[in-house]
Specification:
Order of helices and strands of chain B: EHHHH
Distance between the termini of chain A: 101 Å
Largest sheet of chain A: 2 strands, antiparallel
Structural class of chain A: mainly alpha
Number of domains of chain B: 1
Shape of chain B: elongated
Shape of chain A: elongated
Number of strands of chain A: 5
Oligomer: heterodimer
Largest interface: A-B, 130 and 96 residues
Strand content of chain A: under 5%
Number of helices of chain B: 4
Distance between the termini of chain B: 57 Å
Amino acid sequence: MTGDAPAGAFALAPWFLLGYLALALAAPTLSRLWGRGALIASAVLPAATTAWAAAQIPHVLDGGAASTSVSWVPTLSLDIDLRLDALSMIMTLVIAGIGTLVLLYSARYFPPDDDGAGRYTGSLIAFAGAMLGLVWADNLILLVIFWELTGLLSYILIAHRTGKRSARMAASQALMVTTAGGLAMLVGVVMLGVTAGTFTLSQIIANPPSGPLITTAILLMIVGGISKSAIVPFQFWLPGAMAAPTPASAYLHAATMVKAGIYLFARLAPAFAVLPLWQPLLMTLGGGTLLFGAVIALRQRDLKLLLAYGTVSQLGLMTVLIGCGNPDALLGGMAVLIAHATFKAPLFFVVGIIDTSTGTRDLTRLSGLRRTMPTVAIMATLAAVSMAGIPPMIGFAAKEAGYAGLLDGGTAGAIGTAVMAVGSALTVAYSARFLWGAFADKQIAGPAPAQGAPGQRRSRTPDASVDTMPPTRPSPTSPWMTGPTLLLVILGLVLGVWPTLLEPLLQSYAQTAGPTHEDAMGLWHGFNPALVLSVAGWLVGAAVFFAQRARERRSEIARPGGEPGAGYRATLKGVNVLAVGTTAVTQRGSLPVSLGAILLVLVAFPGTMLLRAGTGPADLEVLGEPAELILSLVILGLAVATARVRRGLTAVMLVGGVGYSMAVLFILRGAPDLALTQILVETVTLIAALLVLTRLPDTALYSSHGGNGFRLAIALAAGALMTALALIIPGTRVGTPVSADLAGPAVQFGGGKNIVNVILVDVRAWDTYGEVTVLIAAATGVASLIFIVRRTGRAPRRPTVMADPVQPRQPSPWLATNWVPRRSLLLEVVTRMIFHVIVVFSVYVLFVGHDAPGGGFAAGLIVGLALTLRYIAGGAFELGEAAPIDPGILMGIGLLIASATAVYGLIAGGDALQSTILSGTVPVLGDLKFVTSSIFDIGVYFIVIGLVLDVLRSLGAELDRQGVLERAESTSSAGRKESGRYGSAPRASRQGTRR
Amino acid sequence: MTSNLVLAVTIGGLFACGIYLMLSRNLIRVLLGFLLAGHAVNLLLLSSGTGGVAPIVGEAKNGEPVADPIPQALILTSIVIGLAVSTFLLAMAYRNYQVTREPEIADDLEDSEYAGSDPSGGDE
């Protein structure tokens, strides 16, 4: 293989891929603006791709190639390495060329008001891009990524009619089968890449490694290929995929995606066809598929399914040819691939035209279309002639090349020739049957219509049994649909008459595997075995067709057998049974049981491991400092009391006590930041818990399954395990802690003296970033649970529901508002005096946090407490006045600030969230120092304020409102009972409450 | 490093009480248990580092030992996340009560139905 030429025009390839992505994303909008015109406009991109690729044909001939690369994730050996050689060129022309025509055709296939057109357009364009990426990828992992992308987009396109259950089932079946194969392929790819030491495909093909690992890897990649190309035993998903709109079927399930597997075989064959398993495996599976697909195609009544099984059969033929592996057979395989694209796509187009203009694809219901749709009939005939391998169409030359290749392939080739001959004869038969089914005059005949087949619904009189069916009357067809069909048929004709046009490209590919014979592609090779086989095929095929017709005249038109994919469904059912069985055993639906099971596992496995390891505490200190001893006793006492009390408010107070004791312990252990935060958090938690508990009945802690021994045993065992762990952990730390070296860098790079704060906003800032997003998620969750109708918004500033509608009271002179019935003057005055002081203090804590205890968390919680004070003193509306802002907006601003700091670190030439220290001298204020991580802390500050505000708004203000509403409802319904006998409406009931 | 028996027993005790409460069907008790277990985890983290003078540059004079700042940073994160989770649990407990008018959480019907259901599975 010669070295790659400089990229030249191919350097544009990544831009093309980007273009497909951008156009796919824009497609829904374009579709809304221009309707079906968007499909026509979108066709410009694949058309440009075709022209651009065709212009590069000279560069890829005679082993030439162009490559280009964009660095992506070098550490994973994953770069966007793209390469264009003869094989990729053939695929590129098929993908982009047919893609253009499919888009044009689709523009009239869908009715003007089709609401799925935007999604369809986007998916189809994205698919074209992914498929191009697949054939350009020179990196194995990149290949797998594009491979899976095509599968996903195929899923979306098959399930286009989302309302149809059968379409969704077919889509998921196709996805499961191809993805399962794709996963096997991924394993193979990784094995291949790791063994070869490179993931670059062209290098692996140039110097193929060998060994049992490689054989396994190639076997796994073959599994991926046959699942994608619907080769036996995976053939069943392709007929199901016909649920897709017909142009999508023509594109994905005939012309391109199903050929990804063939492409993969063709790519690997020059290097790996010598492996002993290659030839027998691929030729057996391919041969089986060739015959199976052709036989089943003869039994179909749905024209589209007939074509689908024909595709399965043809894919089998390509696999036989590439499986044979000699250079001439490879050439034949690719020739069949091109020919298949040029005749199968227009045949699908024809079925689409028949379907849209007559409303059916059932061959038993179509009659006389050859007279009512003559143009379509001519085009279909030419395409079917190509499919049958009859001159002057390209199908003939391709099949001749295939025969020539197999005849050159030794013993295996001889067997392959026999299979191909039988398969070709059957192909002739189903091609003829397609034409007969679509266009011929049918006779009303056959058994009673009670059989239930859709084609048998016509009523008939007993003596009319040999009448010709009236010709089906089609509606007119748009030139946008016939045009692309005609173009492809003409292309098939031109290439059929001058097949040498394809010779250079095909030879360039085949010669990568070894020397080939010249003039492989020709209309006339003289009287040779290939021609004899072809002619025999036509005759036998015609005989099969007429024999089947004769039999059908005697009985009834053949009907398809059972739905394919029984093995798949059995597997799926088996997995379901296993999953439900496992779920039934492990998930009993009881919270305590589930939690108990987890804890039992914890005690049983890590616990026994701990005992068996026999690690004791390294250096045990029994009592430690007296203050710690006393605090520990207090904490333990409070904890045990919490577990025993039955009153909710008492329990919450006791837990609060544990929290405050913890804060003191933190101070003793040299953690002032923790102590500060713990006290603030404990207070907020306590208030939130009290807000909720006061609205629950006094039996809130009641438990019908009181303390039983089992719970106690699990709890004690887990506690003992944790004690053991706490004793062992310190002893296992033998190295010097990293933190020993943090002091210097904290000041130098972090610009702060408080090491804990520097860790939070600089060293581990990403973790903090993740943490604040959790805070936002939790706040949103709280609001969603409490607000039944809508979650966003700020606390109300004016009453929406009055506690006492009769006597609106005067607002407090101390606060902005006060509508609370029971007011505390003292609380109002204190709140008035300290609220603003607290807020200012919080700003101080925020900025001092970098050097002293404090920081964004603590400062935010302080503001939160100030707001809590306003709420407690003045109620819900006071809260609305104090913070007249949607907490969601507040948290959004905070997150925006934090994100901006992260990005700034990148822009400033460092890592994300890296700090920059700014300092300078300002008049009056003196030397000032400012670290960018302080801005990050400001973001945290806003988010924490938002969290507390959201909690107050939900658990406080909203629960107040709901409580008032409930009371109003209950009193009014009580009132209504009393006043009901006077027949008065709610107005009277309000009167009732006035008493 | 030295282990401290008193601290270890406190950690175990907090865990035991917390887990005992969490094994209840009553969501408020579960919340209380969660808070106690949270304190236990924080203590466990704290016990994995050395104590000493606050880890603020310039605080330690005469070479006194400085507390390990890394467990402190971890605990700080844990405390704040604990606040978020406990308010969420509170809201859940309240909502459960609002809907069912029962303080206890009942067995999940969907799950218990599975236990006795026909295992041939769903449609897809």
